[in-house]
């Protein structure tokens, strides 16, 4: 059999825990290894022979039928910059069955970058401060951008792997948004039951917990490294200083933080990319939108400096998230994020508190441009064509710089 679920996360985003939770489901089976790293296929290899080799990593269809496995998962980390640059999304779309779907976990890219550096110091004997590690990655990203083949691709990956919007857009374009699912890292552990039930529905398997022998996702212990916890632990500071700046174990200068990451600087690199994520993550199923609007990183880094911030705040007091009365100015902003810096000039949004209000403000032109308004007012996140239509309509009221 071929897998029906590909994990399109970047390293250090929680993919190990996600795969463990998936494999706790009695109808889901994995490959002979967690990360096959099969995609993209080398352009010099025959695709048909490559797929035979790929298929051999999973159980046969006969075994799957006997065991009751309805889905196979490949935890291959296909959200890596290398996978995207190599054309993995387009290859999967062309060569894999139409039932193939992609699941990815997004973690605060600053925290993810720090975790990569900590792992390199602790396990790979890296002897560079976090600042030098960042400088090298930044320089490599600049050198590799626009190149089909780049000798410094591996060096760029720690930073480039956190540019999530590129990963999401390419997978969405290749498979269609309905075949991709992007999850917040925090919810994977804090709201595991809810996340895994959503994933089960997406994967087309029965809900978790229906069989007596089926582990509930909340009983699956988090797996993977605790790099960020180690980084924050004051007791670990001597180890890191000794590893990367040569401080001795007898050095009591615990205030020497020259080895640490400048988190604000790393955050500034990701800021323009994060700003493009809102439309990609919120034009989705309401259960998924609920998770994103409750995620601290999304509200602080993605929705900050926009009216989406108020939307995030409102979700903390509401269990019915993203109803029409919460999606006026916020929706306008998230739809226009992808156009760049937007300055609202001629459209008065002060009295707009819902999508229904927004439509009424521009209804005459809306009806001429888009026709029927039901798709917008009844649930925009389930009607992508209507969302596009509204975005095009509202863009006539703004100046894009």
Describe this protein with a few key phrases.
transferase, five-stranded parallel β-sheet, disordered C terminus, alpha/beta, 401 residues, 23 helices, NST/OST, sulfotransferase activity, globular, 51% helix, P-loop_NTPase, two-stranded antiparallel sheet, 2 domains, Rossmann fold
Task: Report on the architecture of this protein.
There is one protein chain. The chain is an alpha/beta fold. The protein folds into 2 domains: 5-106 and 163-220, P-loop containing nucleotide triphosphate hydrolases (Rossmann fold), CATH 3.40.50; 277-400, no CATH class. 51% of the residues lie in helices and 7% in strands. It has 23 helices and 7 strands. The protein has helices at residues 15-23, 47-55, 61-67, 81-85, 88-95, 109-124, 130-144, 153-160, 164-175, 185-190, 192-203, 227-232, 237-244, 263-274, 277-282, 286-293, 296-302, 308-315, 329-336, 355-361, 363-370, 374-379, 384-395, and strands spanning 5-7, 28-30, 71-74, 101-106, 180-184, 342-344, 398-400. Strands 2-3-1-4-5 form a 5-stranded parallel beta sheet, sandwiched between helices. Strands 6-7 form a two-stranded antiparallel ribbon. Residues 216-224, 305-311, 313-347 and 365-401 have low confidence and may be disordered.
């Amino acid at each position: 059999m071929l897998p029906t679920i590909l994990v399109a996360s970047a390293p250090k985003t929680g993919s190990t825990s996600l795969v463990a939770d998936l494999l706790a489901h009695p109808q889901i089976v994995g490959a002979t290894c967690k990360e096959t790293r099969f995609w993209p296929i080398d352009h010099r290899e025959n695709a048909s022979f490559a797929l035979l080799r790929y298929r051999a990593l999973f159980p046969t269809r006969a075994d799957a039928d006997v065991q009751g496995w309805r889905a196979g998962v490949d935890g291959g980390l296909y959200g890596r910059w290398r996978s995207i640059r190599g054309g993995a999304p387009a290859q999967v779309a062309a060569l894999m069955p139409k039932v193939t779907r992609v699941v990815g976990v997004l973690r605060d890219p600053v925290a993810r970058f720090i975790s990569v550096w900590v792992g390199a110091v602790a396990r790979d004997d890296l002897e560079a401060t976090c600042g030098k590690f960042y400088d090298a990655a930044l320089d490599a990203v600049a050198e590799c951008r626009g190149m089909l083949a780049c000798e410094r691709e591996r060096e760029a990956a720690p930073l480039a792997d956190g540019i999530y919007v590129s990963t999401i857009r390419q997978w969405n374009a290749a498979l269609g948004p309905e075949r991709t699912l992007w999850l917040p890292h925090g919810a994977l552990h804090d709201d595991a039951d809810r996340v895994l039930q959503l994933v089960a529905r997406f994967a087309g398997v029965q809900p978790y917990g229906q069989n007596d022998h089926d582990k509930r996702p909340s009983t699956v212990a988090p797996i993977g490294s605790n790099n960020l916890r180690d980084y924050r632990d004051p007791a670990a500071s001597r180890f890191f200083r000794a590893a990367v700046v040569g401080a001795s174990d007898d050095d009591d200068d615990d205030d020497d933080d020259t080895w640490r990451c400048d988190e604000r600087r790393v955050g500034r690199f990701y800021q323009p990319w994060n700003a493009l994520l809102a439309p990609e993550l919120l034009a989705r199923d309401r259960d998924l939108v609920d998770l994103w609007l409750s995620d601290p990183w999304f509200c602080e880094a993605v929705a900050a400096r926009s009216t989406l911030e108020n939307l995030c705040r409102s979700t903390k007091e509401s269990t019915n998230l993203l109803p029409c009365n919460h999606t006026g100015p916020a929706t306008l902003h998230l739809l226009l994020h992808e156009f760049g810096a937007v300055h609202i000039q001629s459209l008065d949004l002060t009295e707009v508190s819902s999508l229904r209000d927004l439509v009424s403000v521009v209804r005459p032109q809306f009806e001429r441009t888009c026709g029927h308004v039901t798709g917008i007012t009844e649930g925009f996140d389930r009607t992508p064509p209507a969302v596009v239509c509204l975005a095009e309509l509202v863009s006539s009221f703004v100046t894009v710089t």
